[in-house]
Amino acid sequence: MNVEDAISVARLTDVGLHRDHNEDAVASDLSIGLLVLADGMGGYKAGEVASEIAVLTLTAEMNEAMRHKTAIRFMPGLLPEAQMLIHAVERANETIYQISQEQPQCAGMGTTLVAGIFTDNKLVVGHIGDSRMYRLREGVLTQITEDHSLLQEQLNAGLITPQQAKVSVNKNLVTRALGIDEEVDLEVQEFEVEVDDIYLLCSDGLTDLVEDDEICKLLLDANGNIENAAARLVQTANEHGGKDNISVVIAMVNSPFVSEGGWVKNLLGKVKNAKTHAKKAEYKFE
Fold first, then answer.
1. Tell me, what's the pLDDT at 42?
2. 227 burial type by CB count under 10 A (0-12 exposed, 13-18 middle, 19+ buried)
3. Whose CA, among 14, 77, 113, 132, lies 20 to 30 Å from 125?
4. What spatial distance separates the first Cα and last Cα of the chain, rounded to whole Å?
5. Is the CB of residue 71 less than 8 Å from the CB of residue 65?
6. Angle (CA) 112 118 120, round 5°
7. Is pLDDT above 90 for 43?
8. Closest to 191 measured CA to CA, from 271, 82, 264
9. The pTM is what?
10. Above 90 in pLDDT, residue 254?
11. Residue 77's pLDDT is what?
């Protein structure tokens, strides 16, 4: 769904202070309501390859699906856009995995992924790994994705406290990544969207160094200037050490975005009309 008139987006990625290249990749395409961020991992520059493939493949596949209404499986309980996202991520995973198997310099490469699709006053969110999405609504910042990481599993099991988690040596060990195995499990959620919501996609280069309450303050202090908010978030992470690549995508909802019936309903309507016309023709020949 085209949300260019309803949503503003700012993107920024930075190499940080201690890396010689950037393994993060970010993209957005409001003509189809898409936001995406990936944080690569692997050998020398292989992580950069994985994240770039993920972002480019996802963007291309979603454009193809949206514009030509393909990759619809009609899975019960999921919006068509969620089904398209699952298919696009599967294609990205296949591509990264195949290259990692065929190219020795890319062996073991993979990437995290967090993506959002705005459609009909809703947001479809899909993620793999520890890149996150937050929502700022009425002054309250909420993390709406849960990390796929060893640290998160330890927290969920009550094996460590949040205070211990902040200094854990397992902070960056992900339990799920794109391109590592032949198949991948994308966690998908759907949320209702409200005007003035702000959504933040970010890599762990931000969240490892900047606490949630400081992220919230920086977003609020920007007073709707999301370009400035993105710059301040990256700057703050660098001021706190900048030990990793830092990437952010910020989306601000300026107005409702309602599709009149939705293209799936329109498609089903066309099918129904075609059947009706065929029936009339059949009666005519009788």
1. 84
2. middle
3. 14
4. 44
5. yes
6. 150
7. no
8. 82
9. 0.90
10. yes
11. 82
Q: What is the pLDDT of residues 90-138, one digit of tens each?
A: 999 999 999 999 999 999 999 999 999 999 999 999 999 999 999 999 9
Written in H, E and C, the secondary structure of the chain is: CCCCCCEEEEEEEECCCCCCCCCEEEEEECCCCEEEEEEEECCCCHHHHHHHHHHHHHHHHHHHHHHHCCCCCCCCCCCHHHHHHHHHHHHHHHHHHHHHHHCHHHCCCEECEEEEEEECCEEEEEEECCCEEEEEECCEEEECCCCCEHHHHHHHCCCCCHHHHCCCCCCCCECCCECCCCCCCCEEEEEECCCCCEEEEECHHHHCCCCHHHHHHHHHHCCCCHHHHHHHHHHHHHHCCCCCCEEEEEEEECCCCCCCCHHHHHHHHHHHHHHHHHHHHHHHHC
Tell me which amino acid residue 231 is. A
Tokens of 74: 């009609």
